[in-house]
Structure formats: structure tokens, C-alpha cells
Design brief:
four-stranded parallel sheet; 427 residues; FldB/FldC_alpha/beta; 54% helix; 2-hydroxyacyl-CoA dehydratase family protein; 19 helices; alpha/beta
Length: 427
């Protein structure tokens, strides 16, 4: 595995995450409830109610980084469940079946008393259903609605005109479901949602994402890129799991300031940058060095991933009704990333904003509109290569084979096109 350069903010976020998780384990051991929630669930409610929670996909990323996903998938297989479908959530479910849970990464995931997931697909719903059958665990599902009308340039509407972007029917449904979730949590845990605290959490999230937007825009306009996605993903994503805290808000500000300092000092991820690449898909958590391996040989830099970009465009919501504003943050979240034309038009916008020369698209067994994404980008003149692998299941990944394919694609397609576009002289 290649070395991954680390920003100071990434190292700080990593330290904070370990300290936070150790504290969470202590709280659960002392008798507090633990919730395991999906990434698309409004975490802000749990934050405002001071209910400890772990994000299913975050835990799966830790397991994959520690090369332990095969162990948890084997535990699923022993119980007769598929080990080859929706591994991003299935890996975390497998940890519930570990006979030695304390041997897991970071001391292991404590047993939750509450699991919450959105029904964004049949498989995801079934995974959480199985979890809810475990003794002492209650599953609370949230619906996933759709809308026929798709707004153009939704990213411009979302901060203030989200009612127009998402539609009143979807907002009515999710607002009612979130209010029911609050009542369930209050009854189950004995904790109350105070509106003043709730508003404070939502305001902190908006502040955090405004900083992320500034960072995204700074990276997009800087040549050569000041950081690669391998540098930036930890700096943006670990604070994202702590949305609604002062620490997360301040971490996003420090991330911007660190990138700004690199830009002002003329530092670059690859001083000899020849091509700017876009990574579409979930993080390749078991091989984060992948994103840097093409810099030295080809001068090709991954400057974009969805994590900073969706933080910039997908979360900011202003409004007087806090619960409805929170519903607006998540009612169309899956659409923004995976459902065309919501997603495909956004990827094209981001590709143009960042001056992308080529796109590497990770396609798992659940492609979620991958055909339309590739078609939209290629129609916009941006070449795309698809690689098939699951981002937490190493069994699906041939690192050398993937690197070879991308290297040939860079030589045959991307670098020649980028050189023609740059014209004579330094790019």
C-alpha cells in the first residue's frame, strides 16, 4: 500500500475520532443507549438529544481499513445470509454476530439498542430488519420517497429554496416521520428534544458546511491542485460524522485555512500536474493509497471526490422551521448522489467547475444510475473509465489489475486530450 500524505487537520481528526470512540464505548458500558444509524439518517436529532450513535458506513470503513471485512462477511455467511450484497451495511451487521466483539477494530463496536435506516433499497431494508431481530435491538425505519419533477440546478436552490427543490409532498412525509422518530426516541431513552438545542445543532451544521463550500471552491479554482482527495477525505469526512458540534465546525474552518495556506505558499499535491481526475463512488477504504499512485508516474491527480463536494452543495439548509429544514436536508439526499438527472447533472457541473480531464467511476453490484452518470459526463466531453469493485470487500478488488487499466486509459485517452486542451507551453 502506498503512503498517503496527511494534512495536519486529517491527523487531528483521526486523533479526535479515536478519543470519541473510546468515550462512546465507556458511555455504552455505563448503561447509555447506543444507536447505529445509516449515513442518510438525520444524525442531528441524535446529536441534539445527546444519544450516542455510530454510523454504519463509517464503521464499515474502519473495518475495511483494518482488512477485517472478510471476517465479518464470513460471520454473515455462517448464518445463511448473503455476503456479496450491499457490503457497506452488511459488514457492520456482521459485527453484531462476532463471538469476540472486543477483538474488533478499536476495541469493537458495542451492541446497539436502536438501529435506524432509510428504506432506500430492498437490500438495505432487509439488513436492518435482521438487525432488529437481535435481542434488545429495535429497528426504526424511515421511508425513501421519490418525486417526478426534478429541479434544474438543485444545488443553487437547496440552501434557501429547498421547498421548491424537494417538493412539499416529500417534505411533509419526512417531517412527519422525523417527528415520530423523536417521540420514539423520547419514549425509548427518556431524553427530550429541546428546540433551542436543536436549532443550535442545525446552525452549527450550516456553519460547518459553509466552510466546506469555501474549501471546495478554493480547490476547484487552484492549479495545480493544493491537495489530492487522499489528503482531503479524512479532513472532511471525520468532522462530517460529528455534524452539529463546535469541534466539527472548527475542524472544517481549520481545514479551509490549511488548504488556503498551501495555496498561498504555492504547494501542490503534484507540482508536475498534467491531468485532473474525478473519483465517483464511495471511498476505497482498504486502499487509500490508490488515489496517489498515478501522481508520480503520470502527473494525474485525483482532485475531486463526492465527500467534500456533497458537503458543500448537499447539506446547507436555512429556514424558520427546524424540523422541516432538516427533512429538506435528507429527503432527496440519495437523489443528489445516485439518481439521474439529479446526480448526473451535478457530476457534470462539478467536473466543469474543477477542470476535470477524466473520471474514474467505481461501480459496485448496486450501480445506482452509473450508466446515466457515465453517459452525461462523456456527453459533456469528459472521458470516463468504470472499475467494478466493492469499496469495503477486498475480495472484489484486484489492485494491480485496476491500476494497469487506469494507467493505459490515462496514456491513451486522458493525457493526450489534456495536452491538446492545454496547448503549447506550461499548463
Amino acid at each position: 500500500m502506498r503512503r498517503v500524505n496527511t494534512l495536519a487537520t486529517a491527523a487531528e481528526a483521526g486523533r479526535h475520532q479515536r478519543e470519541w470512540f473510546a468515550g462512546l464505548r465507556e458511555r455504552v458500558a455505563a448503561g447509555e443507549p447506543l444507536a447505529v444509524v445509516n449515513a442518510d439518517v438525520p444524525h442531528e436529532i441524535f446529536r441534539a438529544m445527546d444519544i450516542p450513535y455510530v454510523v454504519s458506513q463509517w464503521w464499515a470503513s474502519v473495518v475495511a481499513a483494518k482488512q477485517r471485512s472478510g471476517h465479518y462477511l464470513e460471520l454473515l455467511r455462517r448464518r445463511g445470509y448473503p455476503d456479496y450484497s450491499e457490503q457497506y451495511n452488511a459488514v457492520t451487521l456482521g459485527s453484531a454476530f462476532d463471538p469476540d466483539p472486543d477483538d474488533g477494530p478499536w476495541g469493537g463496536l458495542p451492541k446497539p439498542s436502536i438501529v435506524v435506516g432509510d428504506a432506500s433499497g430492498d437490500v438495505t431494508r432487509k439488513i436492518f430488519d435482521i438487525w432488529g431481530r437481535e435481542p434488545g435491538v429495535t429497528f426504526y425505519p424511515l421511508e425513501s420517497a421519490a418525486e417526478n419533477e426534478v429541479p434544474a440546478n438543485w444545488w443553487e436552490l437547496m440552501p434557501h429554496r429547498w421547498e421548491e427543490a424537494v417538493g412539499p409532498a416529500r417534505l411533509d412525509l419526512l417531517t412527519a416521520e422525523l417527528e415520530s422518530l423523536v417521540r420514539f426516541l423520547e419514549t425509548t431513552t427518556g431524553r427530550q428534544l429541546r428546540e433551542s438545542r436543536f436549532r443550535e445543532v442545525l446552525a452549527l451544521v450550516n456553519e460547518q458546511e459553509e466552510w466546506n463550500r469555501k474549501t471546495r471552491d478554493l480547490i476547484a479554482r487552484t492549479r495545480p491542485a493544493p491537495i489530492s482527495v487522499a489528503d482531503g477525505i479524512p479532513s472532511v469526512m471525520l468532522p462530517q460524522w460529528h455534524r452539529g458540534t463546535e469541534w466539527a465546525r472548527d475542524a472544517a474552518r481549520r481545514f479551509y485555512e490549511e488548504v488556503r495556506e498551501r495555496v498561498d505558499a504555492g504547494q501542490a499535491a503534484c507540482p508536475g500536474e498534467r491531468a485532473r481526475l474525478m473519483w465517483i463512488g464511495r471511498g476505497l477504504w482498504y486502499d487509500m493509497g490508490f488515489y496517489q499512485r498515478f501522481q508520480d508516474e503520470y502527473g494525474a491527480v485525483f482532485v475531486w471526490s463526492m465527500y467534500l463536494a456533497i458537503a458543500a452543495d448537499g447539506y446547507i439548509r436555512y429556514g424558520d422551521d427546524p424540523m422541516r429544514a432538516l427533512a429538506a436536508r435528507f429527503a432527496a439526499f440519495t437523489d443528489q448522489l445516485y439518481t439521474p438527472p439529479w446526480s448526473s447533472e451535478w457530476y457534470v457541473k462539478e467536473g466543469r467547475l474543477h477542470g476535470i480531464d477524466g473520471v474514474v467511476h467505481l461501480v459496485s453490484d448496486d450501480p445506482r444510475g452509473s450508466y446515466f452518470t457515465a453517459r452525461a459526463l462523456e456527453s459533456a466531453g469528459i472521458p470516463v473509465i468504470e472499475i467494478e469493485a466493492d469499496n469495503v470487500d477486498t475480495r472484489t478488488y484486484d489492485g494491480d489489475g485496476v491500476a494497469g487499466r487506469i494507467g493505459r486509459w490515462l496514456e491513451d485517452t486522458v493525457l493526450t486530450r489534456a495536452a491538446r486542451a492545454a496547448g503549447p507551453g506550461p499548463r
